[in-house]
Amino acid sequence: MRIIIFFIGILTSFSFLKGEKSNENKHIYILPKSELKIKGKSNINKFSCDFNFLKLENPLVISYQEKENKRYFNSATLPIKNIFFDCGGRQINKDFHKLLNTKEFPQILIQLKEIEYLQESIKACIEMEIAGISKTYTLHVTQTKDNTHNILGVLELDISDFNLESPTKLLGIIVVSDIIEIDFNLSFKEV
Length: 191
Prior knowledge:
Blueprint: H1 7-13, E1 23-30, E2 35-41, E3 46-51, E4 60-67, E5 70-75, E6 77-81, E7 85-86, H2 90-100, E8 107-117, E9 122-130, E10 133-145, E11 149-158, E12 168-169, E13 174-175, E14 179-190
Antiparallel strand pairs: 1-4, 1-14, 2-3, 2-14, 3-7, 4-5, 5-8, 6-8, 8-9, 9-10, 10-11, 11-14, 12-13
């Protein structure tokens, strides 16, 4: 349920800021039309938890240095509050928060470390903190531009990497997979 890996979307959203200066500070606003889904499955069913972007009000402040085709971030952290995920029902929401230990760790932190501009995509390195444990991931994202900027991508995670245990139901008859998928389509603009 570290699907709060939403930070992945944030790391990619900084890619539109490419410029020639060596030190930059920017304010980025993630638009409400953005999508972030955490998808999982059990031995009998699938589930999806959607993040409510209407709850994000403040812009993200980022600071970075650029060298050649890479950008190194000094400050680029996205806090994702667990309570803003909806899995479609009261019981599955309760299970989701129990899995993430929301009472003790109410948010997921996604920190963008660096991005590299490639010919067809952007390679991003992010650090995610879920339930007090941090892991680093590298992923490829796609960027589109219209009136706003969009970052699209998918990240697969193993929740056991964060010492989280998949829930079981009905005395172990229903078992949830440790592998989850985070799909994101983030729309953003510079403030």
